[in-house]
Amino acid sequence: MDHPWVIRIWQLPYTIITFAIFYLLCEKFFNKNIAIISTILLATSIPYYNFALQVRGYSLSIMLLCIVLYCLWNFEQRFRWIDGLLLAVASDYFSIQCPQIYTHLSGSVFFICLKPFCTMFARTTGKHQNPQS
Questions:
Q1: Are 69 and 91 in contact (CB under 8 A)?
Q2: What are the pLDDT tens digits along the chain (133 aa)?
Q3: Which whole-number Å values give the CA distances from 114 to 20, 109, 120, 127, in the listed order?
Q4: Domain extents for the chain?
Q5: Is 57 left (phi over 0), alpha (psi -120 to 50) or beta?
Q6: Which among 40, 96, 123, 133 counts the fewest CB atoms within 10 Å?
Q7: b/e for 71-81, b at 16 or more Cβ within 10 A?
Q8: What is residue 56's DSSP assignment?
């Protein structure tokens, strides 16, 4: 092929979306200074730079992983249906992209689904302790 950049340019949108989601993730759950520093560290790290230029789908995997992490933390805090839907869709695509991670991802989803039932069970049996009182 005369122009290898034609194939590699397809990884650019994944990389830009990864930086945006990673920044939002760090800003929402930490603070703005940590978000800026973390995004700069991600952008300048040699492994990310190396894998982002390859046409094997590493950029897509990291983007989907950032989306899954963002939606998972959002869903754990607020239990909104849109976060649950995005979590399901992103984790579905991520499990197709990286099938070896499927067992760990299913364990996380199982834990998230199990958490409300454990909380409800603890309240009904009277073993729920309120840490604020």
A1: no
A2: 677 777 777 778 888 888 999 999 899 888 999 999 999 998 888 887 777 777 677 777 788 888 888 888 887 777 777 777 777 777 777 766 665 555 566 666 777 777 777 777 667 666 555 555 5
A3: 31, 8, 10, 17
A4: 5-125
A5: left
A6: 133
A7: bbebbeeeeee
A8: T
Quick check: pTM over 0.85? no
Tokens of 4: 């290898």
Q: Cα dist. 66→18, 52, 119, 125, 129 in Å?
A: 7, 15, 27, 37, 33
Tokens of 6: 């034609």
Exposed, middle or buried, 58 (CB in 10 Å: 0-12/13-18/19+)? buried
